[in-house]
Amino acid sequence: MKNTDNKKKITSKQVVAMVGVILLILMYIITLVVAIVDTSSSGKYFGLCLACTFVIPIIIFLYSWMYGRATGKKIPGDPDMDEE
Prior knowledge:
This protein has 84 residues and is an all-alpha fold. The chain is built from 2 helices and no strands. It has helices at 12-37, 42-71. Helix 1 (12-37) packs antiparallel against helix 2 (42-71). The termini are far apart.
């Protein structure tokens, strides 16, 4: 029998992306719970959630871009990526 390891190595970019997705989902759940409970700070939580909806993906992209620059790997969306 052949010993085939089909396990893929998890990269740091995948870990950062999953952490970002989990953070966004948790923020939406917290915002929903606070809105249902109807506290006086629900507007602040909504504003925070709305801001992080834009900020977290930008931070993930910047991390990927910086990682690509540091390692010399090309990433999708890099403006200096050569067309071949």
